[in-house]
Amino acid sequence: MAPKVGEYRVDQYATDGSRAAILEAAARCFTERGYDATSIDDVARSLGATKGRIYHHYPSKADLFADVFRAGMEMNYAAIEPVRDLPGKALGRWRTLAFTHVVQMIRRRTFQRVVWEGTEMYLRGATTPQQRSTFAALHESRSRYGAIFRQTIAEAKKDGDMRFGSLGIANQLMLVTLNSPIFWYSPRPGETRDDIDDIAWQVVAFAASGLGASEGEFR
Amino acid sequence: MAPKVGEYRVDQYATDGSRAAILEAAARCFTERGYDATSIDDVARSLGATKGRIYHHYPSKADLFADVFRAGMEMNYAAIEPVRDLPGKALGRWRTLAFTHVVQMIRRRTFQRVVWEGTEMYLRGATTPQQRSTFAALHESRSRYGAIFRQTIAEAKKDGDMRFGSLGIANQLMLVTLNSPIFWYSPRPGETRDDIDDIAWQVVAFAASGLGASEGEFR
DNA sequence: GATGAACATACTACCGGGTATGTTGTCAAC
DNA sequence: GTTGACAACATACCCGGTAGTATGTTCATC
């Protein structure tokens, strides 16, 4: 069985809602205070529970954090899966991909912040040797995810639909732009789905122009 | 007297090199490990010294961090000062400003990462009440700095030299893009000043196009 | 009614921020 | 040229907070 929690699946857990609730709370706490400043008691308190509950499901704080990271990446893959292999030219595919990604950054902000911090932790080497391999796998998952975008813009450039200098730099700038809502977005009261879509399209338009996309999209 | 350290001034210190060396080491450590994960002993060790030296000059870890933040912002203002009030249209002024800023992000990466983390700490409210006012002042300094860019692109839009939707969103995207080298840049061996300039221009070109600047600059 | 999952409670151990107290060199005044 | 005062550190110590553990407790299920 695949119990549904929020909009992503937590298949691999035999137990349903419990771990998912922990993940949500952990994502919120890690986002609000950062990894080091977040104590297990913080997460437990925000659940109305105690340490015991968390340590019953996770062997360590780092493992909990890593699982939030993993869940975040899983959501990303799930989100873009329906639009990964659409027909048409690379530029059009990229627009759809990018838009879907940005909406995901906004909707799942807390998890995505953890993905960001986890990536930084890995790159800084701020992990114990045992956690190193776990984080390495997560980081590679994120790299593969990023490679989808990278390859698409490379193809669009070949098509003559994008113009930029170094692919590496363009890729970094694009990803930073598309991810940036995790830093500056905060929900307005009474905000509709259309409002979010509008914001997302502005982000995509900025990135598209930055990548030298042919027709300047305005929306 | 104004003793020079690196490329920025440390006027306000009666004592010269000592505090500056601490700042440099602290900036490195905070960048490598983050605020919480960095211990005062780490900073001291990277100086070949002990806690005593640091606590002789700074009353607390947060004050040391804040001073790195302050020094970083001071560098930024110093860097753009010569190009703040150049003649000409807003778009041209913006290009110069943006380029100078990006080069600064690359050259003073460690300090700028601290500025970033400090801003996040303030926005998250991860400060004690006493430190709150210090951080508020630093954050306001950074806001004023950002406002220079914001106002310039607003003017360029009025001139018809830029096209974008929401000023607020465009501003966020621009700043994230221009700041992004603090995340992905790492020096290549044998890299020249021209190489860095080339990277910086690519960043500026991306942001310019993203903002809908009229003539697509290529360099 | 026994077994184990799913927690809560109570406790330990350690790390790191901060402090209190040396130690050394320098410089000024007598 | 002695002393005393202070800056600039080093050393030794304290203590609170937190990750992790060990041990209950409850409830469901077989």
Can you give a write-up of this model?
- 2 copies of one chain form a homodimer.
- Chain A has 219 residues and is mainly α.
- Chain A has a domain at 61-210: Tetracycline Repressor, domain 2 (Orthogonal Bundle), CATH 1.10.357.
- Chain A has 10 helices and 2 strands, in the order ββαααααααααα.
- Chain A has helices at 17-33, 40-46, 51-57, 61-80, 90-107, 109-124, 129-158, 167-179, 181-184, 193-210; strands at residues 4-5, 8-9.
- In chain A, strands 1-2 form a two-stranded antiparallel sheet.
- In chain A, a hairpin with a 2-residue loop joins strand 1 (4-5) and strand 2 (8-9).
- In chain A, helix 1 crosses helix 4 (61-80) and helix 8 packs antiparallel against helix 10.
- Chain A binds a DNA duplex (30 and 30 nucleotides) through residues 15, 18, 39-41, 49-53, 55-57, 59-61.
Q: On the 0-100 scale, what is the average pLDDT of chain A?
A: 91
Which architecture of the domain at 61-210 in chain A does the CATH hierarchy give at level 2? Answer: Orthogonal Bundle
Structural class of chain A: mainly alpha
> Most extensive interface, residues per chain?
A-B, 34 and 34 residues
* Number of helical stretches of at least 4 residues of chain A: 10
Helix and strand sequence of chain A: EEHHHHHHHHHH
Unreliable stretches covering 5 or more consecutive residues of chain A: 1-15
Number of strands of chain A: 2
Oligomeric state of the chains present here: homodimer
Characterize the overall form of chain A.
Answer: globular
Order of neighbouring strands in the sheet with most strands of chain A? 1-2
N- to C-terminal separation of chain A? 41 Å
Radius of gyration of chain A: 18 Å
- Indicate the CATH class of the domain at 61-210 in chain A: Mainly Alpha
Q: What is the helical fraction of chain A, as a range of percent?
A: 55-70%
Largest sheet of chain A: 2 strands, antiparallel
The portion of residues forming beta strands of chain A comes to under 5%
